[in-house]
Every structure is written in structure tokens, then in C-alpha cells.
Amino acid sequence: MTESVKIAVLGGGSFGTAVANIAAENGYQVSQWMRSKAAVQEIKSTRLNSRYMPGYQLSLNLLPTTDLAEAVTGASIVFVSIPSKSFRDVVARIKPFTNAEQIFVSTTKGIEGESFKLMSEIIQDELSTDNVGVLSGPNLAKEIAKRHLTASVIASTNDEHCQLVQKVLGNDYFRVYASNDTYGVELGGALKNIYAIISGLAAALGLGENTKSMLITRSLAEMSRFAVQLGANPMTFLGLSGVGDLIVTCMSPLSRNYRVGFAIGEGKNLEQAVDELGEVAEGINTLKIIRDKSIEMEVYMPLVTGLYKVLFEGATVKEVARGLMLGAHKQDVEFILKDGTQ
Ligand SMILES: NC(=O)C1=CN([C@@H]2O[C@H](COP(=O)(O)OP(=O)(O)OC[C@H]3O[C@@H](n4cnc5c(N)ncnc54)[C@H](O)[C@@H]3O)[C@@H](O)[C@H]2O)C=CC1
Ligand SMILES: O=C(CO)COP(=O)(O)O
């Protein structure tokens, strides 16, 4: 066992399990909290979490539990891998078991609708702590399970916290880079899910490689333009948590957001597409939130607006695509201007 450092992971889904198992394989004692008693039982008896990560053999250092107090008490780092809709509830529940030294790292790529808060801001709200970080990057959980070489970003304004997370999660197939642009890293992770839905849709319609490349590149311009207006560093969007995560999520059928888009492109309605998935696709909720925010902030986001029209206003992809291709050029400069805006 590595020192006597204890790590907690909240969430029994695919990414929570990947993070928990990396730390456990690195020799840390990891307590993974999940609500399903059956999943805890399964992990204890077979070392598998078959619903979310079939075939992924879990380390004996990973201790599953349904007891929040047991998971959180005494942990040096608490990773939170709970979908954004339930994130605040779960974080509020751990407060009695926390202490002032603990570090809390969100891995969740979503936004809270009513408040427009990111998950690390929710942690700050609920736990009254500044010991907060964000883990984000091109990190498909199922590829991590196969030990494909992968990189991620730990973002925090505290360098020592970044170094600790790098040590706890880094190994010969998982490399963790550090950033102090917490807001940009976190916002990039949430925004890219919207564009993954669009890419999935385009793939199902059989659109060509030129189209895919155009979509990914214009998505990057659009998400950076929005994030810069909110104070993020545009350079962050050229890194792993920006363009890196955008590329992987827009290109891989392993992405749940891509899969939702693909199913809609095949003619299913949104409800069918989500039901069929059976896992979280954060991009749908994020789309609604960003569409409203872009109107409020008067930020030009034609792809967000177009997808919203298709998913929620009955527009066809064909008419939205035609509108985008023939739209006025006024706002379509190719890149961020020198003053950081577009
Ligand atoms: N799966 C992936 O490849 C990656 C996912 N993420 C992000 O991680 C976050 C979590 O995703 P996954 O683990 O992949 O999701 P998932 O859909 O695989 O699992 C979600 C887990 O959260 C649990 N959960 C949901 N509501 C809960 C509640 N109220 N209380 C307790 N547990 C609850 C579910 O039971 C399930 O165990 C998402 O925001 C996602 O964007 C980030 C990087 C990669
Ligand atoms: O964020 C991810 C990869 O980095 C996973 O994306 P999905 O949530 O679309 O599966």
C-alpha cells in the first residue's frame, strides 16, 4: 500500500470506476462510494462492475461501499464522479464527514442550470472550501480500462494539490498534466459534449470527412468564444481539456453524447435515444443551459442554436445545415482576434 494515503471516489459509474481503479492499482487504499448495494456486492465477490465497465478487473485496493461516511472520512482526496443533476445533493450529504485539509476534485462535465455553476463551484458552495480541483481531458473510461495511453489535466490554483493528484493517478498509461485555469478546463469539458452530439448526428447521416473536420474546428471556435466571454483563458482550449477532449468525443462511438446524436441521426427521437443509452449524456442538459446563456450574453453560437432547433423545436438537420452554410459572414471570422474576442 502506498503510504497510508486514503482516496475516496464518489460515483459507481464508468468514469468513477476508472479513476478509483487507477489510484488503487497505484497502491492507494481507495474507497469507492456507490448507491447500488448489488454493485458493491458484485465488486466484493468478483472484482467487476459489470454494468458500467464490463470485463474490467478491479484492484483489491478498491473498496466499494454504500456508506458515505465510510468513504469520505479521512480521505486525502475526494474525487466526485456524480452526474451534474445529482452533484449538489451528493456533495451536500458529505459535509459532516469532511475536514479542512481534504482536497475535492470534480470529474463531472456538466453545468447546473438554475445557477449556471460549474461542479467545482458547487463544491465550494456546499463545503465552504477552496481546496477544489477539476480533472478533465480526452478520457473515455472504456479506453482507460483497456490501458490505452491516455492524458488528463488536473486544474487547481494550488500547485501542491495538482502535484498530489499527478502522483496518485499517474502511471505508465495515464499521464496527468497540471493547469491553473480551473474555469477554462472545467467549462471546456462541459461544452464539448454539445458538439459531440452534433458530430454523432453528422456521422449517422453519412456526412463526409470535410464536414466532420469543419464541425470540430468550428465547434472549437464557438466554445472558445463563449468561454473567453466568461473569463477563461483561450489557450486552455488548445490543450487536452479543450480541443483534445473535443476531438475524442466528436470522433468516438464510445462517447455517450456522440451515441445520442447518432441515434437521433438514425431517426430516433430524443427520449428513445437517451433511454437506449442507459448512461448519462450530459450534453443534452448543457445544450439547453448554453443556448439560454448565449442569448442572455449575446454570444454568437450558431451550432448550439442549430442543435437546439433540431432537438427541441422540430427543425430538420437539412434546413439547419442550409441556414448555417448560407448564413451572413458578418460574425464568421475564422479565429479569435488578438484582443481575445471574436
Ligand atoms: N465515462 C467517461 O468516459 C467519462 C465521464 N466523465 C464524466 O464523469 C461524470 C460521471 O460519468 P460516468 O461515471 O461516466 O457516468 P455513468 O452514467 O457511467 O454513471 C453515473 C453513476 O452515477 C450514479 N448516480 C447517479 N445519480 C446518483 C445519485 N443521486 N446518487 C448517487 N449516485 C448517483 C449512477 O448510479 C452511476 O453509478 C459525467 O459528468 C461525465 O461527463 C468524464 C470523463 C470520462
Ligand atoms: O468526456 C468523455 C471523454 O473525455 C466522455 O464523453 P461522454 O460522456 O460523451 O461519454
TrEMBL record:
**UniProt: sn-glycerol 3-phosphate binding residues:** K109, G137, K192, D245, S255, R256, N257
The alphabetical list of record keywords is: Cytoplasm, Lipid biosynthesis, Lipid metabolism, NAD, NADP, Nucleotide-binding, Oxidoreductase, Phospholipid biosynthesis, Phospholipid metabolism
Q: Where in the cell is it found?
A: Cytoplasm
Q: Which reaction does it catalyse?
A: sn-glycerol 3-phosphate + NADP(+) = dihydroxyacetone phosphate + NADPH + H(+); sn-glycerol 3-phosphate + NAD(+) = dihydroxyacetone phosphate + NADH + H(+)
Q: Which residues form the active site?
A: K192
Q: Which SUPFAM superfamilies match?
A: 6-phosphogluconate dehydrogenase C-terminal domain-like (SSF48179), NAD(P)-binding Rossmann-fold domains (SSF51735)
**Residues that coordinate or bind NADPH:** S14, F15, R35, Y52, K109, A141, R256, V280, E282
Tell me if NAD is a UniProt keyword of this record: yes
Instruction: List the Pfam families.
Output: NAD_Gly3P_dh_C, NAD_Gly3P_dh_N
The record's section on NCBIfam families has: PRK00094.1-2, PRK00094.1-4, PRK00094.2-4
- The protein's name: Glycerol-3-phosphate dehydrogenase [NAD(P)+]
Its gene name is gpsA
